[in-house]
Amino acid sequence: MNRAMFSGVAGMKSHQTKMDVIGNNIANVNTYGFKSQRAVFSDIYYQTLRSGSTGTANRGGVSPSTVGYGSTLAGTQTQMSQSSMQNTGFGLDVAITGEGFLQVMDADGNIFYTKAGMLDYDSNGYLTDINGNFVLGSATADGDPGSQKIRLTNVGAVPAQAASVTQSINGIEYTIKASNSDKAGNVSITMTSSEALPAGQDVVANISNTGAITLTFNAYSKFDDWNKLNDAINKAITEANNGVQHKGGTFTISASNPDVMSAANPLTGAQLIGGNFGVDLGSVTGMDDGVFGDAGMVVEKVSTDFAGSGNGTFSANYNDATSQWDITLTIGGVRYTGSLGKDTLSSSILLKAPDGSYVQVSNPGYDKFNSAYKTANPTGNNPPQAGDTWTNGNGTATPNFTPSTPSKDLGFGSYPFVLQGGTAGGAVTLDEMNVAIGTDGSVVVSNSEIGDVTVGRITLANFANPSALAAAGNNYFTASANSGEPQLAEPGQNGTGALKTSALEMSNVDLSAEFADMITTQRGFQANSRIITVSDTMLEELINLKR
Questions:
Q1: What is the C-alpha separation between 423 and 185, in angstroms, rounded?
Q2: Given a cut of 70, is residue 375 above it in pLDDT?
Q3: Residue 174: which residues within 8 A CB-CB, separation 6 or more?
Q4: Which of 92, 256, 306, 310 is the Cys-Cys partner for 119 at CB 3.0 to 4.6 Å?
């Protein structure tokens, strides 16, 4: 009876331990990277009541008779099966899609292994896990798999650079560059012109609260030297900055074709800013009252290829056969001709030269022209007849023509000049970088100045018997004598799984199986407790025999 009682006690202890394992599994049903365990029982030693014997010719063999002393916990087994992945949206979360463990190292140099890839980095730039331990791998982009710390700031220094911008306008490249290597040079410069600035004030600057600079050029000021232009601009910026030089230093404008502005080709402020990239049309002066007397014919415009220069003389000859006036404008020996007929409906007339260039004059109307002719020639024919000529058609007007020329506008006002790239240089700080982890474990740092740099690679550890790893808490395992030595490899190589970023491996606890085990464990515990109760009753009966 004592044996039965102690067997019940042993059974209760082993079932209690199994319930502890089940409780731990259920408690970690939402623990990332958790691997469930199971409790395995075995029977205990046996008391031999009778030894077995071998059969003979006269007697049969006898089997041994033994009585056991209950059950005990043979051990706990860790289930290393792959669980499902959960997308987290955090770029530094990683899940291993197969075999292998992340390596982490604590402050004492102890190395642990984990499936929980909740990564981060510390203030010194080292890649860590959520517990603040270092994530290990190769400290260089092309290093062998290892157990080294990975430092995100291992990207070298950014060289000092002055801010600049190059803008192509009308086929010419203009570059504005700051002199100081500093972020302060990363400004936007907008240029415009004004006719309201006083004479002698070539450029006025305005600096906004955001640091943007607006330069206003005097539309009438003339500029014939790039150095003088830059001096005027920087003087204006200094004045707008309360007499202190801009933190970006001085700003210099240069052109891929510097001859667009020179002593031989001076430009006004309006031409620096203007965006007329075609032709400046020729003009005419000295004919405010028009020509041909009261007819009031005036020049409206000239063609883009008009080359006439100097004084011009108008004349008109009446063509009786076509009932029209043939108008002729003579400039420097070149004749521009056209006609004014009684059926002409357009409001303008083109006087054309043999090369196709023209002068456009207003059409006063056939009747008004005839009336003006009669007034200017009272003794002439009425109506006009063949051969009638109006040779003094200018009246008091003395028209003077200038030719059409290619526009000199540079177009500085076409776009804002946004300077970029200015930096004082030095080491890249954590706030100036973005971190990404590749499926192959590569840790890539992105910076606007240096681009993408691979600072290291996460290394996975694989084991011959991963189920024999010892649980150490905090989602960690440690190597044991039965797990084998860690075999290091890049993710996706030598039997290890690749990394999945922005995801974590969930716990592999099966709640339905755990609840079923909980029921059977409870019943086992209950049954063992009944053994003790019944044994106690039997002992009581034995004691009562004495009565």
A1: 8
A2: yes
A3: 166, 167, 168, 253, 254, 255, 256, 410, 412, 417
A4: 92
Residue 372: other Cβ atoms inside 10 A? 21
User: What percent of the chain lies above the pLDDT cut of 70?
Assistant: 98
148-179: pLDDT as tens digits:
999 998 887 778 889 999 999 999 999 999 99
List pLDDT tens digits, range 110-125.
Answer: 999 999 999 999 989 9
User: What token pair was written down for 394?
Assistant: 């200018």
More confident residue, 161 or 244: 244
- pLDDT tens digits for range 404-414: 888 899 999 99
Distance of CA 272 to CAs 206, 224, 258, Å? 18, 11, 13
Containing H/E element for 118? Answer: strand 117-121
Using alpha carbons, list the distances in angstroms from residue 519 to 22, 28, 387.
Answer: 11, 19, 130
* One-letter amino acid for residue 248 of the chain: G
The length of the chain, given as a count of residues = 547
Question: What is the Cα–Cα distance from 160 to 40, expressed in whole angstroms?
Answer: 66
What pTM value is reported for the model? 0.58
CA atoms within 13 A on the CB side of 423: 14
Task: State the DSSP string of 319-388.
Answer: ETTTTEEEEEEEETTEEEEEEEETT--SSEEEEE-TTS-EEEEE---HHHHHHHHHHH-TTS-SS--TT-
Please choose, from the candidates 144, 113, 100, 141, the residue with its C-alpha nearest in 3D space to the C-alpha of residue 494: 100
Instruction: Report whether pLDDT(394) > 60.
Output: no
β-partners of residue 218 are 194
Residues near 29 by beta carbon (within 8 Å), at least 6 away in sequence: 507, 509, 511
Q: Is the pLDDT of residue 14 over 60?
A: yes
Q: Token pair for residue 309?
A: 């220069």
What is the C-alpha separation between 25 and 44, in angstroms, rounded? 26
Q: How confident is the model at residue 547 (pLDDT cuts 50, 70, 90)?
A: low
Residue matched to tokens 């003395």? 398
**Other CB atoms within 10 Å distance of the CB of residue 498:** 19
Element (H, E) at 71: strand 71-78
Q: Quick check: 226 and 261 in contact, CB under 8 A?
A: yes
